[in-house]
Design brief:
2 domains; 4 helices; Protein Yojf, Chain: A; seven-stranded antiparallel beta sheet; DNA-binding; homodimer
DNA sequence: GCCTAGGTCCCGTAA
DNA sequence: TTACGGGGCCTAGGC
């Protein structure tokens, strides 16, 4: 248990010195902005980061139950009955979160020295790059033309040319492809046909595809190639590329 | 500053008693699972929730830099040189996060009593429901048939019938519509035409639409209606519905 | 600033 | 369970 005045000091100190602020206690939360929300009393974890990021967590689930991104202006107000912390942001839209603590179990502030960035392996971009280095495993005679080729809007992951000189749009997905992946590829293919004319093929390349997505893919005359990859460190590896054009039941 | 043994006790107590655990200190993080990542030494905030949720936060940005959802099994190991906390999950895929603290500034555990759920206003579902009650503001003679009508996969927000008895698929978006919204609506419209036959119209309803999306919409013979709504408490209100079929420059 | 798409997306819901 | 789409999505990258 911590007094509200003391808790307020901890929060203010964090705001002042650009420290991380952590508060645990019972509170109510009100939000208004892009949407609006109310959350009745319960025990929560409040995090305020030096950049203005504001997070309210409940005791389960990954996602913060209320939040505000970098740039929020935070104010505090303590009374004998409680501590209120408010986050307000004006850009891109006026948004306000108000957290009213009726009990504070802990309030602390911490310096956060950290200039390190995450090194991530196995992103779609990385897989796409790997695939581009060896397109003939995908199909004999396939030659890369361009990576991340910009479209009227959006970008094809890989633009290639097959043995017959036909343009091939390749969309790579790092995980199971659904309907959205097919429509996305289809959009690129149609755009390319309109712009360049002639035959344009579309290949979707992912670890797996849903039955509905595969059906749509076939109806649209697009192709599917199963992508087997291995997450490694320091980099991902494409295990084997095997053209699949057989029946649905395989997927 | 906190000793590693003491910090380990705090974490173990949290795990034991199903409490929330908060640790602040300098650490390195390693992740392997759906992808892989490395993060060198820096000051971070570690959160472990009673349900196994595991979050590592840096001092900026909203998103956790490393994380694991509910269901992770957590283990701790302290040595004279540091404290290591590991989270491992087997479903839906084997994933491991390892956090190695080389300094602990704080480690605490907290009970989290909370049976409250967020009440949210202004969701797409709510707007869709409001719109359904008054479809004639959208277009005279438009009558609702079904809400959240299931498709072969996916669901149309609103299925309606116009004055001529033609089927109308309505997709509602609570924010700016992009290309994806148009392709989504288009998919429903095509599916309905194939299943029911006859004329099927498609109307996209959102606060605004990007230029490219509007172009595609017109090319596909779909329609757009600007949706003006107001976030209220305890509920949202649709301010005015005005059919827009004029030129692109309006948007 | 807008727009587009990725994300270890997360999450709820319905079949 | 899978699959699909919403999300106050967030975030990065291009223009």
């Amino acid at each position: 248990m911590t007094g509200f005045a003391e808790a307020k000091r901890a929060v203010d100190e964090a705001l002042d010195k650009a420290k991380l602020c952590v508060v645990v206690g019972e509170c109510r939360v009100r939000y208004e902005g892009r949407a609006a929300s109310k959350l009745s009393e319960g025990d929560r974890l409040l995090i305020i980061k030096p950049d203005g990021t504001f997070l309210v967590h409940q005791g389960s689930k990954m996602a913060a139950i209320n939040y505000q991104g970098p740039g929020a202006a935070i104010t505090t107000a303590a009374s004998e009955g409680g501590l209120t912390v408010t986050a307000q942001r004006l850009k891109p839209l006026k948004e306000t979160i108000e957290v009213e603590f009726s009990r504070v179990d802990f309030a602390g502030s911490f310096e956060m020295r950290d200039d390190k960035k995450l090194k991530l392996f196995g992103s779609e971009r990385e897989l796409s790059g790997l695939l581009m280095q060896d397109l003939n495993v995908l199909e004999k005679g396939l030659r890369p033309l361009k990576k991340e080729s910009a479209m009227p809007k959006g970008a094809v992951d890989i633009l290639a040319e097959d043995a017959l000189g036909h343009l091939v749009a390749i969309e790579v997905k790092r995980r199971d492809a659904g309907l959205a992946a097919v429509t996305q590829l289809n959009r690129y293919v149609h755009e390319l046909r309109k712009r360049k004319g002639g035959v344009v093929r579309g290949i979707l390349c992912s670890p797996s595809i849903t039955a509905n997505a595969h059906k749509m893919l076939e109806q649209e005359g697009l192709e599917y190639v199963k992508l087997d990859y291995e997450i490694g460190n320091p980099c991902a590896k494409i295990r084997g590329l095997e053209k699949k054009q057989r029946d649905l039941h395989e997927y």
